[in-house]
Write a structure and sequence with these properties.
Chain lengths: 507, 150
């Protein structure tokens, strides 16, 4: 670098570092996780009030570099290793990107099998969130003692029998994914043009029983949600409170009738008023989505390119948008299946009309989506074509570029590959669901922290509400499969201007 | 447990593969990159289990072998943001009266950075791998399992 340029660079660096040091910093480290994943950072000003708060999510650039030079057919297997929680979503987005890359239409039976696996995964994963991950916030209650805000507390509230039902339903749904996908954790299913294995007619009867029970379970879950959450005024008040509300754009995949579709469709974006703003095939995503970078974080913040980046602000003039269950319901004109449609209508009625801007409504939207996933499974396993012996179209064209998207449980997931003529990856770009939500998550954490932390006073209850602000999005923290025992899952350190510890809160 | 594309994070797999060839069918060896309830499927119905993993506590040198008992997990039941971890799974299994291992040991190697994408182990992890295998072997021996002689 030229000397003058180096000098300017050094000055800028020094300035940035000094700015950073001027802020007091509160760090919430979930120490049961790998470093750098899912940290909440809260900067305090001189008065001890929140200057800026955000959530750090993992960076996938390393993964994209790792993919270069590999055969594109390996991508469904490799990308499914990104996450121990939602490998099926990555696997399916990759399989769809391969269809596009090899310019082959997925065989209709192969598509049915993929959809069956995918909806089963959605149902299972959403159930896990409702009962175990997000559940403690509502089923047990946001102000419940910390010892009870966990799966044990949930079982205490819903009863042992329900707990057993959750576990056995999950296991049976999982058997469908096992059967079709081989290895469950990293399914070996999607190939360009179809799937690797069909479904035997001998098997379908069992799947029909599982599907029937799955639908009953989804409806039961809606009832549980209504009884425990919606009948409690204080919970409804919390869901609709200003602290957890942002008026942003919303994005989700829709079918040709603009109904929610988890596996396929065009991307539809609606304005904060709920009007259609854009509708485009995933191949055109770069015309619509751009990424903003902030100096204080390595996270990229995707925004709507044609609206523009106006900062972490809401409203129609800011390109910030949201994905995930609440956003999907806002971005569509309805659900694709009858019972889910009923639940959808009731959802908007209860929450005061469409679109819904309350982040905590994600929990409710998730239950509505469970019903659609379950109904779709029932439809698929009763379609006699699903046991056909043909399930793949063999590709014949030379690969160049491929784009694939699915609605992961946590929102729109985009895979984009470019290869040489042999199909070796030259470039891979992945926009994961949590990344799509990163700007809005930052706004939520910031708003909650500003409302709850004053004059440097932070307590356990307040922290839980800050966590609730991002837990509703169910953000992905990367490939941390370990949750080995730490003495405390959360550590908050209050520091002075020099970085010295004033106080440490552990829980 | 681990992730094969995150370098030292896969150290548990490497140890498990050695143990598989040593012990034969008497000891079932399962490799899993899963989190959450998926772990239930593997652990349910087992009498005893050893979980081999990588861990980054930052409190000891890379290559150190650490281990925990089931009792060590009991204090860790606060809500987790995204995935249900082993402590939650154990609590859940207990609450629901599921057939879970009576004895459970977690043995992990301290690694420097399990977040770097690579498919091989670092020299430090490679060097300490026999220690991880030996610790697992010792536990299995205490439970009455011995390596196959053939």
């Amino acid at each position: 670098m030229e000397k003058t340029a180096q000098k300017v660079w050094d000055q800028a660096q020094g300035q940035a570092n000094a700015d950073y040091m001027r802020r007091r910093r509160v760090s919430i480290d979930p120490i049961t996780r790998l470093e750098g994943h899912g940290k909440i950072e809260i900067f305090l000003n001189d008065q001890g009030n929140v200057d800026r708060a955000y959530l750090q999510i993992p960076e996938l650039r390393g993964f994209e570099v790792f993919s270069q030079g590999r055969p594109s057919e390996d991508m469904p297997q490799i990308t499914s290793r990104i996450c121990g929680v939602c490998p099926t979503a990555h696997h399916m987005a990759a399989a769809k990107a391969l269809d596009d890359l090899y310019q082959v239409e997925c065989h209709p039976v192969g598509r049915m099998i993929r959809e069956l696996v995918y909806n089963t995964f959605m149902l299972e994963d959403h159930a896990l969130h409702v009962y175990i991950l997000g559940g403690p916030d509502f089923i047990v209650g946001p102000d419940a003692p910390k010892e009870l805000r966990n799966v044990v507390g949930v079982i205490g509230k819903v009863g042992l029998e329900v707990g057993k039902k959750v576990i056995s339903t999950r296991r049976r749904l999982r058997s469908i994914i096992n059967y079709a996908g081989g290895k469950v954790i990293h399914p070996v299913l999607g190939l360009p043009g179809g799937v690797a294995k069909g479904i035997s007619p001998d098997q379908i009867k069992e799947f029909q029983e599982i599907a029937r029970d799955g639908l009953e379970f989804a409806k039961f879950t809606l009832q549980v949600f209504k009884d425990i959450v919606l009948k409690n005024d204080s919970y409804v008040k919390l869901i609709t409170s200003d602290a957890f509300t942002h008026k942003t754009y919303y994005m989700g995949l829709v079918d040709k009738n603009n109904k929610v579709n988890f596996y396929d469709g065009d991307v539809r974006v609606v304005t904060p008023e709920g009007k259609e703003y854009a509708r485009f095939p995933i191949r055109k995503y770069l015309e619509h989505i751009s990424e903003h970078v902030e100096p204080w974080s390595y996270i990229k913040f995707p925004f709507l390119k044609q609206v523009g980046w106006k900062g972490f602000v809401e409203g129609g003039t800011s390109g910030v948008y949201a994905v995930a269950p609440m956003a999907r319901l806002n971005a569509a004109e309805g659900m694709a299946t009858p019972e889910a449609q009923k639940a959808y209508e009731e959802y908007f009625k209860v929450l005061g009309g469409k679109p819904v801007h309350h982040t905590l409504a994600n929990h409710y939207a998730r239950v509505v989506e469970m019903i659609q996933a379950a109904e779709r499974i029932v439809e698929l396993v009763h379609d006699p074509k699903i046991t056909s012996k043909e399930f793949r179209t063999i590709p014949t064209k030379t690969p160049t570029k491929g784009f694939g998207a699915v609605e992961a449980p946590r929102g729109t997931l985009i895979h984009h590959y470019e290869t040489d003529e042999k199909g070796l990856i030259r470039k891979a770009n992945l926009i994961v669901a949590t990344l799509n939500n990163s700007a809005r998550i930052a706004m939520s954490v910031d708003k909650a922290a500003k409302g709850l932390i004053k004059g440097g006073q932070v307590n356990d209850g307040l922290l839980n509400q800050v966590e609730m602000a991002f837990r509703a999005y169910d953000p992905c923290f990367g490939c941390a499969t370990h949750t080995l025992p730490g003495e405390m899952p959360l550590v908050v350190t209050l520091r002075d201007l020099q970085g010295g510890v004033i106080r440490e809160i552990r829980r | 447990m681990g992730n094969e594309i995150l370098g030292d994070d896969a150290v548990g797999f490497h140890a498990a593969r050695r143990l598989r060839s040593e012990f034969g069918p008497e000891v079932e060896v399962v490799e899993s990159g899963e989190s959450g309830l998926a772990l239930l499927d593997h652990l349910e119905g087992c009498e005893r289990a050893v979980i081999l993993d990588a861990v980054a506590t930052g409190k000891c040198p890379a290559g150190t072998i650490l281990s925990w008992d089931r009792e060590d997990f009991r204090r860790c039941v606060a809500p987790n943001q995204h995935a249900a971890g082993l402590p939650h799974i154990l609590e859940l299994a207990e609450q629901l009266g599921m057939g879970f291992p009576r004895q459970l040991r977690v043995v992990a190697m301290e690694v420097q950075d399990p977040t770097i994408f690579r498919e091989s182990l670092t020299p430090e992890a490679q060097k300490a791998l026999p220690d991880l295998v030996a610790e697992a072997r010792r536990i299995l021996a205490a439970w009455g399992h011995s390596p196959c002689t053939n």
